[in-house]
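Running this now, will post back.
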Amino acid sequence: MYIHTGLLLIGAAVMVRAAVIEHFWTIEPVEARMPGLFTRTAVGVNGQWPIPGIDAMLGDTLVIHATNKLTEPTSLHSHGLFQNGTVFYDGVHMVTECGIPPNSSFTYRIPLQQTGTYWIHSHSKQQSAEGLRAPLIIRDPNEEYEYDQEIVLPLEDWFRIPAHDMLKQFMSPDPRVRFRPIVPYGIIGGACAGNKVLNFSPGRTYRVRLINMASSFDFHFSIAGHEMRVIEVDGIMVREHTAHGVALGVGQRASVLVTALNSTDANYEFHADMYTDLLQMPRYNPLNYTGTVQYAEGARVRRDRRDAWTCVSDLDLEPLDREPLLDNVSTYITLDAYSGVFSDQTFRHSFNNHTYVSPSVPSALTALSAGAQAHDPQIYGRQTNTYVLNHMDVVQITIVNHDYYSHPFHLHGHVFQIVETGHLRSRESKLPLDAPVRRDTVVIRGGHYAVLRFRADNPGVWILHCHITWHLDLGLAATFVEAPELLPEVPDMLRENCVAQGISTTGNALGDKGPLSCDAVAEDPTPYADQFESLDPPSGWKLVSYMLHGGDDDID
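Update: finished.
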């Protein structure tokens, strides 16, 4: 159910709409049909799946009344929104809230202070992979670019196997189990891949908003016979950049302008190809999913004969506002990403050998209740990989990916400048333009690194994590507690949901109210020596390897 109320604020130069965009979401199991393929249970909203998107304008207030009809807690994260002053609506289970318990409700009330292409998804367990995800578009009343029409095109992967069963497989210490093939299916714009039609009229310019809402796979998008101009990435407007294709890691978004041809003699194939560099599976990787750009019903379809993707690079993009490179860095953090078998006999991911384990008290509530101790990272627990940041410091993070496959790293509460990227073995690096591009999600390929900068100007508790569902669930996350002395008050409904689940709303990561350090927790898993991901896969599989020790499968 959706309710829209609003008024017009009239200023000296512009008339701005200030509206309350109100949605009532009942989060519940629904029947998800893939026509001609299979039917399974998904997590939907108000009996619908895929879930319809949300549209709003800059200055609106988004209100979502969420009621949980699942058998486990749920939460909603508005991916890419800074939540400045509203950290407790960021929706991260056991970071900013305790989750909405079954048969309970919570209201997210978010002033919309940004424009661009975003999405909403669950940040509890594997519910996003199970379908709890939807586009969120925030429009600017004074758009930087002119276009005639808009197309929102979410790109999703979908599996026959329930996500919790997939997670069990990926946790196995046995690579023969871990690499057992799981075939994905593609959903393009809410339709089964191959069935999506984009209707074009000659001469018109279209803004196509691309959103990778998948759980595991990259998407590479292109249109045969058409040129695209990239104008937005992750909510940041950029100078027009011509490209044949756009590559999106999980969680990334982009807007492209496409001007339709002046003829209706033919229709054209578009590609939304799914790809992962974890495994090469005959017939399944890449999965060349297509749809049709239609000028005239029944016209012949022209296809692109190119064999390789040629996609725009982040470092070739320049933001329209030309924000200069942040200087005077005061905080330097290095995060080494590894994966391997841990002491609890599970395969896990880690930063600096610490695999993320949720605390017993949400980290934001620990920060709010700890007083002067809120600046001590130990109280948040060793396994939360917590760093405490001072207000307005310039922070530089170097993320080093020691795995042989890519990780799309997403930072909550901020966008970051991409300062440098490079290859670990060759030490070849690439620097940005004078004004570096800003994103909230960056893909770091196996055996590569990236240097990121942002200003700590948003008090809150924010996580940085890989946005591949399974990698986050297996521990690839870190926590930034930013200016804890400036955190806002907690909504009453949030505290009530914690109490209803028997979760403390005060104390350190263990729920202790005293000054006890959480630096050592016996049950936390630790990595085995020499058990990081460097094992050969089962016979018949080929790893696309960037292992640092070298090997015949290495790819430059």
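The CA atoms of residues 203 and 260 lie 5 Å apart. More later if anyone needs it.
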